[in-house]
Amino acid sequence: MTVEREFEKPRRQVFQAWTDPRQLVRWRGSPGWHVETETVRGTTELGGRHYHVKIRDADPTTRVATEGVYTEYFEPDVFVSRERITGDPGIDPNVPLELRVEFNDMGRDRTLVRIIQGPYEPDVAGWHGQAWEKELVRLDAFLDGTGPGRGTSEGATA
Q: What does the alpha-carbon distance between residue 99 and residue 66 come to, in Å, rounded to a whole number?
């Protein structure tokens, strides 16, 4: 599954929105979901581990946890994470996924973000791609200062 979106922000700023827990909690999750601030933790370096839990707003008992390790980490260009996702009925938690996020400089203060994630079954890839597209809309709103700003820095560590 591959998703791309261009942002009118510098590459370093967009990269930090992904890797700084205080920023990540403010935009991650499709509409109707949010990241539980207290669960966000990680170390942003090669071999560093990261973890967060997304919660469905309408049913807080529905929780999807992501635990990963960075197998590539080159700020502000790219990170790759080998991940286990639990709580998502479309993903086998015993089969690791790879998440690759590239940040490409598109000229003056513009960044192209490319997300490559898998492996997925074809039907699952389609709706996960749609979910990523919705999350990138939220990221754009966050970067522009118009996003919901649901999370806070309380409990989040780098």
A: 11
